[in-house]
Amino acid sequence: MASVRKLLSFVAALFWTISFAHAEDTLIVADQKGQQKALLEAAGQDKNLSYTLQWTEFEAAAPLLQALAANAVDTGIAGDGPFLFAWGANLPIKAAFLVPPRGGGESTAVITTTSSPIHNAADLSGKRIGTGKGSIGHLLLLRLIATGAIPAPTPHIVFLAPAQAKAALDTKQIDAWSTWEPYVSLAVVQSHAHNIVDGRNVMPNNSFFVATNKALATKHVRLADFYKRMTAAYAWGTEHQAEYAAILGRQTGLPLPVATVVAKHLIAAPAPLTPKVIQQEQTTLDAYRSGGFLRDAGKLEDAFDLTVSPSQ
């Protein structure tokens, strides 16, 4: 009986070792609405990998960042606003690679219905505006308030997930929705919503590939390879926007006219992080602090890992 127990213990240990090795050979990537996966596959950059690439999809950055904090995924893309909002709450994550302003800031916007009397940012004064707490849409509102683009009285911000915000806007429970792609183009192209004001010249508009502290410590080379492939994929997308839009539509279910606009807005040129990029993000951190958030956040530079290079 003792020998049987020893054998079972050995098998269990062997199974654990194999499972652990398999986990180490896998890079789990969190995506928003399938956009990164579509681009990588359209560009053919998902071929000949020395590791297994596994995708997990989220509808917004907040749950994606929570999954990172739980080490359920290794890396994923998020806007600077939601990333710093999550990092400021002491989540064990860091920005590891830059995706610079996409669409010049047009990918984040405040939208209203066609029948709305709201026509400009000043008209948002005192209105009920839906967005996700800590989201890039939330950041846009805080910056519009801070710069005076939305004058007093301050609008009432209603924290809602994207699906809830759309339903609330359609039923006039809120006056406007501060959101991001692909929701901006879905509303504007498909529902003829009005784009009242966007993120151009208001905030940095950076996005980042964010990684867990654990992945940065144990999967550094795989992360560098993945970011290198995503950089090549974005370069391909710049030259082949029609092909990217087509596969984006097929993989996400977005209508082709919507996918075409989204593809145009989301194409960028990813690059390693620099001290200048970090300095830009002081504006983002200050915006949240002025809104009463992240008062106890640490030093801004601690939110970034500058050691990941796609040339590795």
UniProtKB/TrEMBL annotation:
Pfam families: NMT1 (PF09084). Keywords: Signal. Gene3D superfamilies: Periplasmic binding protein-like II (3.40.190.10). The keyword Ion transport does not apply. The keyword Signal applies. PANTHER family: ABC TRANSPORTER SUBSTRATE-BINDING PROTEIN, ALIPHATIC SULFONATES-BINDING PROTEIN-RELATED. Belongs to the bacterial solute-binding protein SsuA/TauA family. This is Nitrate/sulfonate/bicarbonate ABC transporter periplasmic protein. It comes from Acetobacter malorum DSM 14337.
